[in-house]
Amino acid sequence: xxxxxxxxxxxxxxxxxxxxxxxxxxxxxxxxxxxxxxxxxxxxxxxxxxxxxxxxxxxxxxxxxx
Length: 66
Hints:
- Helices cover 68% and strands 0% of the residues.
- The chain is mostly helical.
- It has 4 helices and no strands.
């Protein structure tokens, strides 16, 4: 989910519409096809790292609040 949010942050336009289509598809569509529409295929190189980087940024922001 964090990786998907990272894709959202980088998306220029249209992400919200594609995301709602993903939610509508539910379990009726294979995950790799549904996520492929969001250009967030689990097999894509660097996707996991995007999610981890996002979490690291959030931790840094929290640490800076002290």
